[in-house]
Design brief:
Shape: globular
Radius of gyration: 13 Å
Helix content: 10-25%
Number of helices: 2
Strand content: 35-45%
Order of helices and strands: HEEEEEHEEEE
Low-confidence stretches: none
Strand order of the largest sheet: 3-4-5-6-7-8-9
Mean pLDDT: 91
Length: about 110
């Protein structure tokens, strides 16, 4: 399982810095071409992930939280192309951990 504290750190770096550093490896924060959302790749124990700023224009609950001023970052497993977790103001919720997921607070 991914360490929630690492994801919290990545989310904070994504939203406040020009790069993300995980396990000593630094990756640049870039912007998507269409909506200009922040995104950055990172690797944990050889497994690749992508951190993506939530699009506030989406009608989902995550989009609604982003519209209301919360920092929402989604985490995607690059190999499976599935979202594995979300960070809302530093609180991590893992997907696929039961009906409501499992939360991790640093």
């Amino acid at each position: 399982m991914i360490d929630g504290n690492v994801l919290t750190s990545v989310a904070t770096q994504l939203m406040t810095s020009t790069s993300v550093t995980v396990e000593g490896k630094r990756e640049p924060v870039r912007r998507t071409s269409s909506q200009r959302l922040r995104t950055a790749p990172f690797t944990i124990s050889g497994h690749k992930y992508q951190a993506i700023e939530q699009n506030p224009e989406k009608p989902s609950r995550w989009g609604q939280l982003a519209r209301s001023g919360h920092q929402v970052v989604q985490f995607k497993d690059v190999k499976s192309n599935k979202f594995v977790a979300v960070s809302v103001d530093g609180d991590i919720m893992f997907y696929g951990m039961g009906e409501k997921g499992q939360t991790s607070k640093p």
